[in-house]
Design goal:
Blueprint: E1 3-10, H1 14-27, E2 32-37, H2 41-47, H3 53-61, E3 64-69, H4 74-84, E4 87-95, E5 108-114, E6 118-126, E7 132-137, H5 140-156, E8 161-166, H6 174-188, E9 192-197, H7 198-207, E10 214-217, H8 219-233, E11 240-245, E12 249-253, H9 270-282, H10 286-302, H11 315-325
Parallel strand pairs: 1-2, 1-3, 3-12, 5-10, 8-9, 8-10
Antiparallel strand pairs: 4-5, 4-11, 6-7, 11-12
The protein binds glycylglycylglycine.
The site of glycylglycylglycine (GGG) has 9 residues, from helix 4 and strand 12.
């Protein structure tokens, strides 16, 4: 039986980096069938819908999805796509690769971002010409579900625990609930869960990245803090992500459409290729996933490199070098 993978390039550099990652997936020994689907600004302009029903249905029915990026329509695309796969956690590893000129080469931290609520739950209103409001949602059930995933994640890696980023001294009800729920689950499992104020975390991470391994975050904080970590390891071109659900998942680079370089063929495909490696591992192709990780690591160490990493190679050059190492 083949494994069904939906591929959505989206907009901007998504149209360049996703085909690169698909080439890599085609090169490994996995019995995948690829279905190409549309979402984003371009399909909105064509059809009036940023996320056509057939794309949503295909993602729901597939075994996994590889997604690039969406531009102005990001909120209408990414959030429903995460919902389509039932994702409750966005796993975002930020790791400095050997040979890459990173601000903080010691950085090796994984963000486990709550993926269904917080300010992303979308209860935003324009109440008058002067006033807009946003309702933040935090439930014990979603926080505990994330915490159970975090516990499994660290136990599988023989780690003692994780940190929990929050701002419970100000948002006592919402972040207080989040922190207490996550810490409670960890303690019941005999794991350490140290709370850290997210503003203090933003200061401490650049000063001492080695102080953090796995950080459990509310939704928006996970988005922002992982981008901060991207700045420490060499940029957004290096950060992959996995949106994990109970029986489906969607993989995407952390970066967006990068309109400043879109269409030039120089986007760094590493984040998307490593997202594809995470897809392989998620579907049980551990050896192939490890091989893709190693190939990307080798290319980042020895070149060729795209301009974001100080090189002058194209997306195609980097992809060809990864394929050669596989
Ligand atoms: N790779 C997906 C993408 O388009 N990322 C940019 C973005 O706006 N992300 C927001 C989020 O991850 O919640």
């Amino acid at each position: 039986m083949t494994t069904d993978i939906v591929v959505i390039e989206g907009d901007g550099i998504g149209r360049e980096v996703v085909p690169a990652a698909v080439e890599v997936l085609e090169a490994v020994d996995a019995d995948f069938t690829f279905t190409h689907a549309e979402a984003g600004d371009a399909v909105l302009a064509e059809t009036g819908e940023a996320l056509p029903r057939e794309t949503y249905d295909a993602v729901q029915a597939a075994d996994a999805t590889l997604f690039g990026a969406a531009g102005e329509t990001a909120a209408d695309v990414i959030l429903p796509l995460r919902e389509a796969v039932g994702s409750f956690v966005n796993v975002r590893p930020a790791r400095a690769y050997p040979g890459v000129d990173a601000l903080r080469p010691e950085t090796d931290v994984v963000f486990l971002r709550e993926n269904t609520e917080g300010v992303y739950a979308g209860h935003e209103d324009r109440l008058s010409d002067d006033l807009s409001t946003l309702t933040r949602v935090t439930t014990t059930s979603a926080s505990e579900r994330l915490a159970r995933f975090a516990c499994d994640y660290v136990e599988e890696r023989d780690m003692d625990g994780f940190q929990v980023a929050h701002k419970a001294n100000v948002m006592r009800e919402t972040d207080g609930r989040f922190r207490d729920a996550v810490v409670g689950v960890a303690e019941a499992r005999g794991l350490d869960a140290d709370g850290v104020l997210m503003d203090a975390f933003a200061t401490r991470l650049p000063l001492d990245p080695t102080a953090f391994d796995v950080v459990v975050c509310p939704n928006l904080a996970g988005d922002v803090l992982s981008d901060l970590a991207a700045g420490l390891v060499g940029g957004l071109g290096l950060l992959p992500s996995a949106n994990i659900g109970a029986d489906n998942a969607l993989f995407e680079p952390v970066h967006g459409t990068a309109p400043d370089i879109a269409g030039q063929g120089v986007a760094n495909p590493a984040a998307t290729i490593v997202s594809a490696a995470m897809l392989l591992e998620h579907l049980g192709h551990d050896e192939a996933g490890a091989a893709v990780h190693a190939a990307v690591e080798g290319v980042l160490a020895d070149g060729p490199r795209t301009p974001d990493l100080g090189g002058d190679a194209s997306t195609e050059d980097v992809t060809a070098a990864v394929l050669e190492r596989l």
